[in-house]
Hints:
Layout: E1 2-7, H1 11-24, E2 35-42, H2 45-61, E3 65-74, E4 82-86, H3 90-99, E5 115-119, H4 124-134, E6 141-145, E7 147-153, E8 159-166
Amino acid sequence: xxxxxxxxxxxxxxxxxxxxxxxxxxxxxxxxxxxxxxxxxxxxxxxxxxxxxxxxxxxxxxxxxxxxxxxxxxxxxxxxxxxxxxxxxxxxxxxxxxxxxxxxxxxxxxxxxxxxxxxxxxxxxxxxxxxxxxxxxxxxxxxxxxxxxxxxxxxxxxxxxxxxxxxxxxx
Length: 171
């Protein structure tokens, strides 16, 4: 089965992202706005229990962190994705790094750039037009993230929560 690990920001941030995504992101209906902490990876039934234990240990040993969104960015020319840029913070990077080491480590096609996708699969002309209109927007959003979710992908390619992990919880 295909899994991923993500943070779902507050309703306020999701509403902002969705106001753009519904027009520019063909994955709008497949998953809510999110910050990917671990790119999609495969696990079979025999591996999930060990993975859940490791992820739970990581969550318990990690502190809540600040999610700070400051502007719009783009991955162009690598691909025509436009996103809300999430600032690298020590806490965010620590959680990401822990989720991508040891038996959870997988080969990643790109370096980790924290972001919330708002547009993808655009033509070059669409990308240029949308990016140029959005990049001047002033965005100032900050919130504390105290949990992340392990997701799994359904047959229709949509994603749903498998389990929620609370940061810093010792129970």
